[in-house]
């Protein structure tokens, strides 16, 4: 009777959280999208091309610090999410390894950044300053991710959303100020600095929230640290090769164009990426509310029901976005400006490639938050086989073929990840029957 009486309350609370987080994240994405679209519209194509390439390099650098570690916090904490010292200590132990991997990332990314930047003639004072500021931003981002992960696991989504909202407002205000000034070749550095300042504001606000909630800056003792390290290695080890591979896949479109295309093509790929921001709202809400719930749930029918409803809803929303891109591409192009009007016939291809990548990532995260990381290395073979076949038959010569390459890659990833999820789905049902 007690459980039944609590159910409406729990449901109402959950719905309020979803509405609140969804509303705040929607505003954040809209505001961030406006900032991004302002950058697309105001910056000259060559300047925006250098900004796009620099962003891709930083994305890869952050990705190298991951190597599966970002998927370890939730399963390591597990059902001890109410034990604050344990949550803080476990997350700190995981992120310590990410800081160490930053050195490896720099050794990989910096030479590539230099060769391509010199090849496109971007090595001027403004671009070098932008690169230096962006590197500082990577340090801030890692710290922000750590603090945000702790708040997410502890369930303080209201605070996290409020802080994210403030950070977004700061960023868009600074971006508007930068673009309004006649900075010329220094405009890219100003835009990057706006993001770094917004990240620093977020860190300060999260630290203040920690102090108000009296969340201690806990370190695990030697025995607990050893146990966490062992669990992290168990979870992350099968993900190392796929993580390296898929971090490259995440920026491969920009990198292919930067190697074989013109600065104009790099700018077009970057501008298209701004349109895909429409998909970010759902991803942010699911990472804040859904995946922690999946990590805490006991294996069985309840877990299967959460996963089933989540994926049906997610894929349904993605299908609606794709239909709008196919039938109404002219309205999406309005957001980018007349400089990109020629890209209108390719809008649906952009959204299809982005949706496939997002869907594969959604299935992947549904597995990893349960610690189900086995078998991921085989995805490399599947993806490489599909990509090699595509390059051999079609090749990469223009933006359409580059987007086709991304679609083929996305199809391979979706099939593989949902195949693994189907296998786990059966296992979760079997686990439920065994307990009975």
Automatic annotation (TrEMBL):
<keyword id="KW-1003">Cell membrane</keyword>
<feature type="transmembrane region" description="Helical">
    <location>
        <begin position="272"/>
        <end position="291"/>
    </location>
</feature>
<feature type="transmembrane region" description="Helical">
    <location>
        <begin position="402"/>
        <end position="423"/>
    </location>
</feature>
<feature type="transmembrane region" description="Helical">
    <location>
        <begin position="21"/>
        <end position="43"/>
    </location>
</feature>
<feature type="transmembrane region" description="Helical">
    <location>
        <begin position="312"/>
        <end position="334"/>
    </location>
</feature>
<feature type="transmembrane region" description="Helical">
    <location>
        <begin position="95"/>
        <end position="115"/>
    </location>
</feature>
<feature type="transmembrane region" description="Helical">
    <location>
        <begin position="239"/>
        <end position="260"/>
    </location>
</feature>
<feature type="transmembrane region" description="Helical">
    <location>
        <begin position="377"/>
        <end position="396"/>
    </location>
</feature>
<keyword id="KW-0472">Membrane</keyword>
<keyword id="KW-0812">Transmembrane</keyword>
<feature type="transmembrane region" description="Helical">
    <location>
        <begin position="346"/>
        <end position="365"/>
    </location>
</feature>
<feature type="transmembrane region" description="Helical">
    <location>
        <begin position="121"/>
        <end position="142"/>
    </location>
</feature>
<feature type="transmembrane region" description="Helical">
    <location>
        <begin position="49"/>
        <end position="74"/>
    </location>
</feature>
<keyword id="KW-1133">Transmembrane helix</keyword>
<dbReference type="InterPro" id="IPR050833">
    <property type="entry name" value="Poly_Biosynth_Transport"/>
</dbReference>
<feature type="transmembrane region" description="Helical">
    <location>
        <begin position="187"/>
        <end position="206"/>
    </location>
</feature>
<protein>
    <recommendedName>
        <fullName>Polysaccharide biosynthesis protein</fullName>
    </recommendedName>
</protein>
């Amino acid at each position: 009777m007690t459980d039944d009486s609590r159910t409406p309350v729990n449901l109402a609370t959950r719905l309020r959280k979803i509405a609140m987080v969804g509303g705040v994240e929607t505003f954040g994405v809209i505001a961030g999208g406006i900032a991004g679209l302002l950058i697309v519209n105001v910056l000259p194509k060559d300047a925006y091309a250098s900004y796009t390439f620099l962003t891709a390099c930083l994305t890869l650098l952050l990705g190298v610090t991951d190597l599966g570690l970002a998927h370890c916090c939730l399963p390591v904490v597990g059902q001890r999410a109410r034990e604050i010292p344990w949550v803080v200590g476990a997350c700190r132990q995981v992120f310590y390894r990410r800081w160490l991997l930053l050195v490896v990332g720099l050794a990989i990314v910096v030479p590539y950044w230099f060769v391509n930047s010199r090849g496109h003639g971007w090595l001027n004072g403004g671009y070098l300053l932008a690169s230096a500021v962006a590197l500082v931003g990577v340090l801030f981002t890692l710290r922000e991710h750590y603090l945000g992960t702790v708040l997410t696991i502890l369930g303080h989504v209201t605070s996290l959303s409020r802080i994210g909202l403030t950070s977004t407002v700061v960023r868009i205000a600074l971006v508007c100020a930068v673009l309004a000034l006649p900075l010329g070749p220094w405009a890219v550095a100003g835009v990057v600095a706006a993001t770094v300042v917004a990240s620093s504001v977020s860190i300060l606000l999260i630290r203040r929230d920690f102090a108000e909630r009296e969340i201690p800056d806990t370190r695990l003792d030697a025995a607990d640290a050893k146990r966490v390290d062992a669990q992290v290695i168990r979870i992350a080890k099968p993900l190392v090769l796929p993580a390296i591979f898929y971090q490259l896949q995440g920026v491969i479109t920009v990198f292919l164009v930067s190697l074989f295309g013109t600065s104009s093509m790099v700018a077009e790929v970057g501008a298209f990426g701004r349109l895909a921001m429409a998909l970010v709202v759902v991803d942010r809400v699911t990472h804040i509310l859904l995946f922690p719930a999946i990590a805490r749930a006991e294996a069985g029918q309840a877990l299967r029901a959460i996963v089933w409803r989540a994926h049906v809803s997610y894929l349904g929303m993605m299908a609606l976005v794709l239909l709008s891109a196919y039938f109404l591409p002219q309205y999406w192009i309005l957001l980018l400006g007349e400089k990109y009007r020629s890209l209108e016939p390719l809008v649906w291809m952009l959204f299809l490639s982005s949706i496939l990548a997002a869907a594969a990532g959604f299935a992947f995260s549904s597995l990893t938050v349960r610690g189900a990381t086995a078998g991921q290395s085989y995805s490399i073979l599947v993806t490489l086989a599909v990509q090699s076949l595509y390059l051999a038959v079609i090749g990469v010569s223009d933006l359409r073929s580059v987007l086709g390459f991304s679609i083929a890659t996305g199809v391979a990833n979706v099939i593989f990840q949902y195949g693994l999820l189907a296998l786990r789905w059966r296992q979760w049902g079997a686990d439920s029957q065994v307990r009975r």
